[in-house]
Design a protein that fits this description.
Layout lengths: L5 E7 L5 E7 L1 H37 L4 H33 L7 E3 L1 H16 L4 E6 L4 E4 L1 H18 L5 E8 L5 E7 L6 H4 L11 H6 L6 H11 L3 E7 L3 E8 L4 E2 L1
Parallel strand pairs: 4-6
Antiparallel strand pairs: 1-2, 3-5, 5-10, 6-7, 7-9, 8-9
Helix pairs in contact: 1-2, 2-7, 3-4, 4-7
Bound molecules: adenosine-5'-diphosphate.
Adenosine-5'-diphosphate binds next to α4 and α7.
Length: about 260
């Protein structure tokens, strides 16, 4: 079912002749369909928290609630507003990454510093619910954009925290192999992901379980952002997972992106 879209156009050319133009517009049509899907997805993702927020507002307005009850509603409203804010922030991050076609800069980024920042954030987010193991196995550093690298790594760590049930374990590792290639990896003992989903995880808004992702505060854009950042550093995202056992997300950097 290889659907090929052709566009035919005829132009008068001389007295009895026509110029027939046949164009392969398959890619153009695909890009257009993707853009339409994306706009529909964004609209849907925004509409849900707005609708919920309006529902809460109406309730507070129309019912004579006790102060404590009112506070509960305000908290739920804040959660919906935060959800919209994260979505808009992730959309902006993605738009900026997509607009920037240049490779990431060549700044030296201390791996130790990144690991320390990640550890702090991870512990704050998990609040003691997970057993962490942070390993910096190499004194080599990364070459790239510090803010982007931190954002990619912390997306992977926060996914591990959000999807791994309490008392699960999470290993975060930076290592460099004999050929000088670097690898940052996050391995969790969470629910794992069935193989049929793996190749689609980095698509914008693709989720294995929609409600679970939303409940944990996910925007559905995290892995799309990670993939973009990796590719700006000529790196690759590798995902391995065994349902029921856990998942491992690794970003592999070429030796040009690893330094003393
Ligand atoms: P989300 O905001 O939904 O987490 P992501 O792009 O970060 O969006 O991830 C896409 C989907 O990949 C998630 O909805 C989830 O189904 C799956 N996923 C990501 N990380 C993990 C993980 N560590 N364990 C299990 N599933 C995961």
């Amino acid at each position: 079912n290889s659907s090929l879209s052709l566009m035919l156009q005829a132009f008068p050319f001389g007295e009895k002749r026509h110029l027939l133009l046949i164009q392969d517009v398959t890619d153009l049509q695909k890009a257009d369909a993707m853009r339409r899907d994306f706009v529909a997805n964004v609209s849907h993702e925004m509409r849900t928290p707005i609708t919920v927020l309006m529902g809460f507002l109406e309730t507070v307005q129309s019912l004579n609630l006790e102060k404590a009850q009112q506070d509960q509603y305000f908290e739920m409203m804040m959660a919906q507003a935060k959800r919209m804010k994260s979505l808009v922030e992730d959309l902006l991050t993605l738009a900026n990454l997509e607009a920037n076609t240049l490779p990431a800069p060549m700044n030296v980024v201390q791996a130790q510093t990144l690991m320390a920042l990640l550890k702090n954030d991870a512990e704050a987010l998990s609040q003691g619910r997970h057993a962490f193991h942070f390993e910096t196995k190499s004194s080599m550093n990364l070459v790239g954009d510090e803010r982007e690298l931190l954002s990619a790594f912390s997306n992977l760590v926060s996914n591990a925290i959000r999807y791994t049930p309490d008392v699960g374990s999470i290993n975060v590792k930076w290592q460099v192999d004999a050929q000088g290639q670097g690898e940052f990896s996050v391995t969790d003992s969470g629910p794992g992901i069935a193989s049929e989903h793996l190749s689609r995880l980095t698509e914008r808004f693709y989720r294995v379980d929609r409600s679970r992702s939303r409940d944990t505060g996910g925007t559905g854009l995290g892995l799309a952002i990670v993939k973009h950042i990796a590719s700006r550093h000529q790196a690759q995202l590798h995902i391995e997972s065994t349902p029921g056992k856990g998942s491992s997300f690794a970003i592999r950097f070429p030796k040009e992106r690893v330094t003393e």
